[in-house]
From TrEMBL:
One of its GO terms (cellular component) is membrane. It is found in: Membrane. This is Prohibitin family protein. The keyword Ligase does not apply. It holds the Pfam family Band_7. The chain crosses the membrane at residues 7-27. Residues 24-189 form the Band domain. The keyword Zinc does not apply. InterPro entries: Band_7, Band_7/SPFH_dom_sf, Prohibitin. Keywords: Membrane, Transmembrane, Transmembrane helix. It comes from the Bacteria.
Amino acid sequence: MDKLPKIALPVIFAFIVLVILISKSAVTIGSGEAGVLYKTFGGGVVTEEPPLGEGFHIVAPWNKVFVYEVRQQEVYETMKVLSSNGLDIQLEASTWFQPKYDELGKLHKEKSEMYKERILLPAIRSAARSVVGRYTPEQLYSSKRDAIQAEIYEETKKIVDGQYIQLNEILVRDVTLPTSIKEAIERKLKQEQESLEYEFRLVTAEKEAEKVRIEAQGKADANRILSASLNDKILQDKGIDATLELSKSPNAKVVVVGSGESGLPIILGNN
């Protein structure tokens, strides 16, 4: 019985040390995350092996694990840029991105956990300045929004593709012009719209007038052809045909007694 405390103390001490070692060695990677292993005595950041996936892991207590979010993320940026004629433009854009999973170790070793601030955001700003500088305020305000968005995405992608970052999309949410420029553009657009409406009315009226002229010309041509084809013989034949049809009517008694000066029959006795 006297020896029990002497045995228990080392056991208890060993148990405590084991618990400390396990707590120091246990790493849990959450959902949508991955871990980069740093080996203190084994060459530093592990880049040639896949990162640690979701779940529970045991690592040597003298090593470290750096946890990264690897699902799609969004960063919102407001930038001051210049148009092609040197006017200040405020551009608001959202960027969807995520680190490249298989190259997470290289990202950590070369760019660190600050890769968004050191790589992604500077790339977006540079691309936005380059793209917006090609356009006038009128183009930025109206027709070129989609083109600007696509060009900023392409230029940013060229920069970050070699930096272990996967760029999914860039969305231009708003383009803000100086108030005086915006009002001038709106007046110009309104005048252009009114001019287009006026031209449309003129074209419509001209088409309607042309239609009336064509119809009138058609009628005139028909009458001219008809008049040219009529002669006394044709008129006389038509008159005879009409008289014969009239004589067949049960409500009329027709007597033909020779012909008139025009050569047409004379009708007498109509009851």
